[in-house]
Amino acid sequence: MKKIALTILTLVAAIMIQAQNIPVYLDETKPLEQRVEDALSRMTLDEKIAIIHAQSKFSSPGVKRLGIPDLWTDDGPHGVRPDVLWDEWEQAGQTNDSCVAFPALTCLAATWNPAMARIYGENLGEEALYRGKNVILGPGVNIYRTPLGGRNFEYMGEDPWLASRIVVPYVQGLQSKGVAACVKHYALNNDEEYRHQVNVIVSDRALQEIYLPAFKAAVREGGAWAIMGAYNLYKNQHNCHNEIMLNKILKHDWQFDGVVISDWGGAHNTEQAVKNGLDLEFGTWTDGLTFGASNAYDNYYLALPYKQLILDGKMTTKELDEKVRRVLRLHFRTTMNRNRPYGFLCSDSHYAAALKIAQEGIVLLKNDAPKGKGTAPVLPLDATKKQRILVVGENAIKMMTVGGGSSSLKVQKEILPLDGIKERFSNAEVDYARGYVGDTIQSYNGVTVGRSLYEMRSNDELLHEAVEKAKNADVVIFVGGLNKSDYQDAEGHDRKSYDLPYAQNEVIEALVAVNPRLVFVGISGTGFVVPWLNKVPAIVQGWFVGSESGEAIASVLAGDVNPSGKLPFTWYADLNQCGAHALNAYPGVWREGNKIIDEEYKEGVYVGYRWIDKQKVKPLFPFGYGLSYTTFKLGKVTADKNQLTADEQISFSVSVTNTGNRAGAETIQLYVSDKKASVDRPVKELKAFQKIFLQPGETRNVTLTIGRDALSFFDETTGQWKAEPGAFEALIGTASDNLPSKCSFELK
Ligand code: BGC
Predict the structure, then answer these.
(1) pTM for the full model?
(2) Pocket lined around ligand 1, Cβ cut-off 6 Å
(3) Taking phi first (over 0 means left), then psi (-120 to 50 degrees means alpha), and beta for anything else, what does residue 511 get?
């Protein structure tokens, strides 16, 4: 009886579900493409036009009639940007949008640890979910071509392989939360100056070997759901609607099935936007946003002007349907994904992730004994000791999450370096002197900096105060570098000079003259000239590390954390060591009429260490370099074969021993050198790496495997990647200038 009742009940339930008649597009058990086609078939022309352009500064509409909600985007890439007004850049003034700031992407790249990128993406994804954002405008993977680049700090360094290995887990981590990554700025947006007018001229080889691999990895391996077109031009066409970049390379060659979003205001022309692969238009400026039109977004290139062309029969809906499919796909992956987890804002686990990434990314660049004071390196500082510590420098008291352009954040907390040091060195007497005045701006985009930077005293008075205090200190910690003000590490412009700004060099020289126990902590996303290199015994690159800044820096200074970051770019001694500058290939040459500036990447594939190797010069600090408080010893490298065919892989193993008395991590790097090729190839190129954590005395084996891809170059005559048979060498070690193990092998 019971059994019969149960069967009847099940039958009734099944009939009821059928009767509800869930449309295919809402049925999550149906394949994605079927749902997309079903939704598409139900949409009117107006609805289709509506979902391919913005309706506010950061959102685009869904399809209300079909229950598809609005799509919300937000910057990116280091935390979730505070809300702005519907039609304005001004802050909305919400009280629930203070976030956790994760370290800037240069720091993430400096961890050389893909696992850190994964937790970065996941934690950021949870913050985005809480804030109701479906697309994070990031990460950025434009290659660090010149140290002057205003947005280098938002990117992952100079090397395509390193950037590729870091971007993939970031994208996957973020998207695992049902939040889309929008990888930017595709492509060739390697500097900021004249970013709307620059027309990049670059060889196909440099494009494919240097500038595109990280984007390709984000798409092919990371499965990125969105990508942002860059402002600049390539082959005289804006990248937001560039036939080659979008239709050919991204959508045809890489089979990208996601959405191409314009950078804000990066679309310029309806016909090109329609035909050349732009799917979703954002940020186009129209007068109507301040006066005139009832809905200025109707004037977007992909709005009424597009609809009119269709109504006039000048265009079919073929391209429109394709764009709508992509946008629908994005909706099903994000807004319509009922399996998305819940989001959290400012949870302890987010702070813990931000701290861990920061601690792993900070790079120890120099650690010697102070001049004339024995042989013991200055760092780490003993936090148990009663001592007088003097902290000098504006960056010790300046919030660095505020400023710099679209990546600027409104944080719930940011531990300033001075506060972090005071907290950690509570047994010491910690004093502070500003030393110089840089930028006293108190707020940016409606967010005020925590501590007042107002200063009445002259530079001379500040210098005098710092020097007098330094005379009586046991150790001086100078926290300097760049900041997020215009023409520094900031969007929209590049730096005007490679020098440290303000009076920093003068102050450092004066301090070290009276107290040789000086530690320089650099806060920046790029390198700068270090004229006092030989006088200052310890240098730490502290990046922009976000909410946990002060704690992360203090933990490295105190040795709670053994630094293990490695530079993701070459730190040039001067600008002439950089190919783009040595060849006078930056910022380009204006065409007549001053509307377009041609920037020819004359150095070709010789970017960063590739140029350094070719010129045989010694940079200040090489790519892949970073010290530790412990020491490591590498054993003899062995290979599993000495010949391989194009379909095979070859593995190299090496034992690594922590020979010091502290736990620490070392990154084993493998570079490939093609001994003889039909084209001019770099002396060596990074093709594999692994970070390994070791207890004192511990030994472990690291195996690095490469295959045909690692041996290939982009053949411009055929437009294909090519691995030429012949002799190769694997160079293995711990920095691009320290590769003691060489293994020869042959590709058959
Ligand atoms: C920036 C993008 C950013 C967008 C939205 C643009 O100016 O180049 O990186 O995502 O603004 O804020």
Answers:
(1) 0.97
(2) 75-76, 137, 184, 263-264, 406
(3) alpha
